[in-house]
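Example 9 (inverse folding). The structure is encoded as follows.
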């Protein structure tokens, strides 16, 4: 234990909070940070925040699914998270007969809770520092060789900590760009069931219009329950499983709060890059973000056109559309904020100061010279990568077709009678069923046509697949006419074995590599993917390795340059806590935003039958009558729907609990504000706000609208 504590001293002495900036490792809080939390209003001990052996807040926080946070709120494993985090499970449980996305759902009994195949909840058990082992194994290595050794070591170390029989797994997280390594040990529970969800007219109220905006009136929550086997261990779904008995759960406060009150957010922020270079900022604002936004805008437009026409299509595409839309607006806003606040110029100033300090030091003096060369070498191909991932493979048909490339290679090398090929064909058949069940072919036709057209217009001609566009012109028409690409797309969808059951069955009955190779959809996907992977992917891998190595040296140099400066690590989808306060703000001259939104604002935005601003009839009725029960805010004489805090969060924190000074749940974090969308790279101490759904609104929706007071009775309410 003493070795563990000593090896963690890097974090304890090198973390800095600027205003409310910082995503802290709760298990490694230094005294200085903890003292500041207490000064701000925290009433808990360090042991109540995090303890390995005794119950603490960390035991109530889970990784929900693959990229969100959830919190346990009852002694029977009840879990709160965001509606958009549970969206996939809610959509999977829905049908046209039982459309829970549209109508909402609250299980009247435990027996009615709906299993969610593939959904899991991971609890953090402990961490250990493995930096010494990593440093020893990578001594003298750099670039790709170092990266490979780290990957190999990470796999080996994770195996040492894993215990599959008890659902225990481990993952190594590099901190400070590879200057420190911690192993995080989790226990994964695999039986997670849907307990309740509001209609999406509440859970997604405001849609894309209000996304990343304040004021915000979205009831972004859903309710699940974690189950375990009768022996207390994680288990696959079984009717005989029992609710989880957690080490700790969060009490729920309906007392309310005021402007300036202490707030704390636990969760799993996915990634930040606060130590990004000016080169990286420039690449993002000039190439990566604009390209991603343009391609996602195109895909969303075509999907939305079909979703408006048919409720069945809306249900089918709901989850995919939500995922694409969420970060479409983020990437656009991030670029605008980075430019507005001149982050590129600020990074340049930091780098100039570093270069002055590094003169005469061979470890660092050429660092930015080498970095400039690395970006210069990669930049010509950066847009190409985006147009493959977000454009060509943004077509579900071409994405599925590209997944068959390994099968095609096996058919050529091993022959169609080889056991591996037979397994591959069976897997492809299963994948095709999934592809068709989740894809709207009419909208995909238009996506494919536009993706091929936009690729030609935006990607340097010298990087195009040889002969592809010449053949397209010869067969379908002039390359500067939209009709040409529409004809080509119609041909692909009309002839492919992948889009027709009879043609697909004929292929499975008599598999033939040549037949697959000549298929229009497969030929298009493989042509573009092979062109990129064989010619340019090596440049990408070389850039990644160089960028990582120089980033590691840069942070090492910054510490040497400022040995007394305290720093915090970037987010790495590991448990963090941020602290700040509930707080109003002024985004611009003569404009002030209050710290809460109320039901009054919900009704003001209400537009009957509108795609984004419609509301359930019972909400309008009860809200109009001000039937808020014990959930009304006494100061406002209204129902508070959402509020904002100064907490530092990012993607992955969705669903995170917002906790008051006493350790009680007051809300769920679900978004950031548009004025501070540069937060992954640069935190704005004045404008950064986290948007949270008020837990009182959550309970009102469950109790008064959903008719499920039994769920509320399960909670420990603080009145």
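The amino acid assigned to each position is listed next.
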């Amino acid at each position: 234990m003493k070795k563990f504590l000593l090896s963690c001293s890097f974090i304890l002495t090198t973390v800095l909070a600027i205003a409310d900036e910082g995503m802290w490792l709760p298990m490694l809080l230094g005294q200085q940070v903890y003292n500041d939390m207490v000064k701000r209003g925290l009433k808990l001990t360090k042991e109540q925040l995090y303890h390995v052996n005794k119950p603490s807040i960390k035991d109530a926080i889970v990784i929900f699914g693959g990229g969100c946070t959830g919190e346990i709120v009852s002694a029977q494993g009840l879990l709160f998270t965001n509606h958009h985090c549970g969206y996939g499970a809610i959509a999977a449980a829905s049908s046209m007969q039982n459309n829970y996305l549209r109508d909402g759902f609250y299980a009247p009994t435990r027996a009615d809770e709906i299993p969610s195949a593939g959904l899991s909840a991971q609890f953090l058990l402990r961490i250990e520092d493995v930096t010494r082992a990593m440093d020893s194994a990578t001594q003298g290595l750099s670039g790709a060789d170092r990266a490979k050794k780290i990957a190999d070591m990470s796999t080996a170390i994770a195996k040492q900590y894993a215990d599959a029989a008890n659902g225990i797994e481990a993952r190594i997280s590099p901190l400070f760009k590879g200057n420190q390594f911690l192993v995080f040990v989790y226990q994964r529970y695999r039986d997670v069931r849907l307990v309740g969800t509001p209609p999406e007219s509440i859970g997604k109220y405001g849609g894309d219009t209000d996304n990343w905006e304040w004021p915000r009136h979205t009831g972004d929550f859903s309710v699940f329950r974690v189950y375990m086997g009768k022996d207390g261990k994680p288990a696959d779904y079984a009717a005989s499983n029992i609710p989880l008995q957690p080490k700790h759960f969060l009490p729920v406060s309906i007392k309310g709060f005021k402007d300036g009150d202490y707030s704390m957010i636990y969760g799993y922020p996915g990634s930040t890059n606060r130590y990004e270079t000016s080169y990286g900022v420039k690449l993002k604002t000039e190439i990566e973000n604009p390209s991603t936004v343009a391609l996602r805008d195109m895909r969303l437009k075509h999907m939305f056109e079909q979703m408006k026409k048919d409720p069945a299509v809306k249900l089918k595409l709901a989850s995919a559309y939500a995922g694409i839309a969420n970060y479409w607006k983020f990437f656009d806003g991030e670029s605008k904020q980075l430019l507005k606040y001149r982050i590129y110029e600020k990074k340049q100033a930091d780098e100039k100061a570093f270069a002055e300090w590094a003169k005469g030091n061979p470890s660092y003096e050429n660092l930015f010279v080498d970095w400039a060369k690395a970006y210069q070498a990669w930049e010509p191909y950066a847009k190409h990568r985006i147009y493959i991932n977000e454009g060509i493979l943004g077509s579900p048909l071409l994405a599925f077709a590209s997944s068959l490339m390994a099968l095609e290679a096996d058919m050529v090398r091993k022959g169609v009678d080889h056991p591996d090929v037979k397994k591959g064909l069976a897997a492809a058949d299963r994948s095709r069923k999934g592809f068709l069940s989740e894809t709207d072919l009419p909208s995909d036709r238009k996506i494919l046509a536009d993706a091929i057209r936009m690729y030609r217009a935006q990607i340097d001609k010298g990087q195009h697949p040889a002969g592809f566009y010449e053949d397209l012109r010869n067969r379908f028409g002039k390359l500067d006419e939209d009709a040409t690409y529409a004809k080509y797309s119609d041909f692909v969808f009309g002839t492919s074995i992948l889009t027709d059951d009879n043609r697909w069955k004929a292929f499975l009955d008599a598999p033939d590599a040549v037949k697959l190779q000549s298929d229009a959809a497969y030929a298009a996907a493989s042509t573009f993917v092979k062109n990129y992977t064989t010619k340019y992917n090596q440049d990408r891998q070389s850039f990644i390795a160089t960028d990582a190595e120089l980033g590691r040296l840069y942070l090492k140099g910054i510490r040497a340059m400022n040995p007394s400066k305290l720093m915090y690590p970037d987010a790495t989808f590991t448990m963090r806590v941020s602290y700040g306060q509930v707080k109003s703000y002024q985004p611009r001259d003569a404009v002030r935003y209050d710290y809460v939104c109320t039901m009054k604002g919900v009704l003001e935005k209400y537009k009957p039958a509108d795609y984004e601003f419609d509301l359930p009839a019972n909400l309008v009725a009860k809200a109009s009558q001000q039937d808020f029960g014990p959930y009304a805010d006494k100061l406002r004489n209204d129902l508070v729907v959402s509020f904002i805090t100064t907490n530092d969060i990012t993607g992955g924190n969705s669903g995170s609990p917002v906790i008051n000074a006493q350790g009680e749940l007051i809300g769920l974090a679900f978004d950031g504000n548009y004025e501070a969308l540069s937060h992954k790279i640069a935190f704005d101490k004045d404008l950064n706000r986290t948007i949270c759904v008020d837990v009182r609104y959550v309970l009102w929706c469950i109790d008064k609208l959903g008719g499920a007071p039994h769920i509320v009775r399960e909670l420990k309410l603080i009145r």
